[in-house]
Amino acid sequence: MPRRESSFYKASEGQPPAQRLREQEASLRILLVKAADSSPAVRAALTSARVSPSSITIEDLQRLPLVRKEQLPLLQSNALPFGGWLGARLGDLRRIFVSPGPIYDPEGHEPDYWGFAPALHAAGFRRGMLVLNTFSYHLTPAGAMFDGALAVLGCVTIPSGVGSLEIQVKTMLDLGVSGFIGTPSFLATLLAKVAETRADSPLRVAFVSGEGLAESQRRDLEARSPLRISQGYAVGDLGLIAYECPERTGLHVDDRVIVELVDQSGALAAGEDVAEVAVTFLSHVYPLLRLATGDLSQMAAGQCPCGRTAPRLAGIMGRIGEAIKVRGLFLYPHDLDRAVARHSEVRRYQAVITRPELADELTIRVESDAEDRDALAVAVAESVQAATRLQAQVEVVRPGAVWVEDKKIVDRRK
Ligand SMILES: [Zn+2]
User: Which domains does the chain have, with CATH numbers?
Assistant: First the structure.
């Protein structure tokens, strides 16, 4: 039995997985029967795969072509403004946003259109709380995404964006703002500014998105004040995809979408492989089918003790194209991060790939004050091999010796 059902935002978060699949499949059929009429792009996708909207199964989605996120600007400019994917009438929309690309993003009229209420609820946002929403309200949808969710939760929103840092800090302290929404880096900036005033931060819960949240960064920020930081995964085209629960076991996929992990051809990835996130949006407004996001993830195994039964993404591990091939194997920055993070005495690292003769060599330079450098080097090499299947030379250097470039992996092969 779910352990904490009363803490869910909606009862369906704890429903049996088979029931979720049945309900999503029923929603998908109702959606596609209607969208096959109203959306030329949905009609074309179904026709090309010879799938009938009234009898489609979730497995049938695999037969449909992927819609590549990087192709959206071109698809949209060929059939303005939404590439033929709009299920509603243009005049029935509430707002239209313009994301970098440029990509047009439609918003419908339903409350919490972007779906963040369950994510914010899981993060500890409750009725009556004052919340600083530091995402932009202009052109891009992030500000409005959270605004809608805060409204249905009954929170009091201060729409701040990221400018006017001093005014934001004064407002936080004057009003006792206890909730924060924004990027992890802006949260860090804001907390540093509060610390300068020598006042205690009134923030108790924060929800971050838009950039990766390193565990070390979260530990660091949470240690400074009684603050709980949660994260979610979303895209500007359709809003929330998955969110963290208090157990921090990964990101629960929300029922509003169907997530598949796919290879380049659109076939499902095997088991627990790291693969690209493709998402189908169960929305009558914007029924995007199989949007390939370019983000890499893998499914987390086992049940979550929180009682939520939705499948979980283990996290967002980077972008397609970031991996570098070394000795025939793909080396991902997130795998190295995970391997090095197991050694708390390491401050920073940099991996350098060279090819002195015919074979690639992987050298990892780690900064540390550790007394026994040889033992640390052996231990890091073992962790790297376990995470990447690659043998690496590990050099332990003194703090400050690693020249930190943008990339943690530097490719010096000719
Ligand atoms: Zn959970």
Answer: 324-411 (3.30.300.30)
